[in-house]
Amino acid sequence: MSTIQIGSKQVGDDQPCYIIAEIGINHNGDIDLAKRLISVAVAAGCDAVKFQKRTIDVVYTAEELAKPRENPFGPTNGDLKYGLEFEKEDYEEIDAFCKSVKMTWFASPWDENSVDFLETFSPPVYKIASASLTDDGLLRYIRKTGKPVIASTGMSTYAEIDHAVQVLGNKNLILMHTTSTYPANYNELNLRAIPTMAARYGVPVGYSGHETGIPTSVCAAALGACAVERHITMDRAMWGSDQAASLEPNGLTRLVRDIRLWEQSKGDGVKCVYEREIPVIKKLRRVGAAV
């Protein structure tokens, strides 16, 4: 495997776990809420925040947008999709705010126009959503930017992942093991797929979690995940489809703390006697006992 440069951070072999706070659409179309969530990620010690970007009339059909769907923005699915979508002035504000608090940000583009849009902000990496993993045209378009790629693999077979890796190439590529249920049940997480995928593809593999708890995401890091991504929210009871599968501020802080504690604790695997153990040896071992 290898390491991938994302902004100022190296991600991959023997590097600290890269922790991504997925804001996604949990901002509910409110730029002030988005900035509050960015601040939560900063306070917790995350490495990056991530958004989603769509060109609504490209990603969705007119029929889909016209479907009835009661939501805070109106009576149709289109009202919802347009209401949740940030535009240029919003991303300019996000970009300026992230720079002011020294937080890396990037996004998952769901179509080629969104890639062009995001390129104006020079993101350090692109994220491919699980839903887009089989979109060869989008994968190739993202690769033309020359940026590193993080690709989620939820709801995908090995055959589909094999094909995506063939399209993307394995240079500057991170795969994310994912289960695309919201929230995911613990018996659906299959965390042992992380080392299996790393061996199969020879690239760094991370974990994008949609479960409700914290310990399993820490376990993912212990199993070798080079990155851990979790959705974040101010309150899991807020309106929105992703809120229930998200971590609140205290949960995000605990997640980062526990992953960093694991990194401190794992050592190099070589058994040794530590300097601080020597007085304990002198105190507790029987005098004259054979060695």
Count of separate structural domains? 1
Number of helices: 12
Under CATH, the homologous superfamily reads: Aldolase class I
Read across the widest sheet, the strand sequence of neighbours is 7-4-3-12-11-10-9-8
How many beta-strand runs? 12
CATH topology label: TIM Barrel
Percent in strands = 15-25%
Category by helix and strand content: alpha/beta
User: Would you tell me the overall average pLDDT?
Assistant: 96
CATH architecture: Alpha-Beta Barrel
Main sheet specs: 8 strands, parallel
Q: Could you say which overall geometry the principal axes of the C-alpha atoms support? A: globular
What are the low-pLDDT stretches, counting only 5+ consecutive residues below 50? none
Name the helix and strand elements from N-terminus to C-terminus, one letter apiece.
Answer: EEEHEHHEEHHEHEHEHEHEHEHH
Instruction: Determine the fraction of residues in helical runs and give it as a percent range.
Output: 25-40%
Through-space gap between termini: 42 Å
CATH class: Alpha Beta
Q: Rg from C-alpha positions?
A: 21 Å
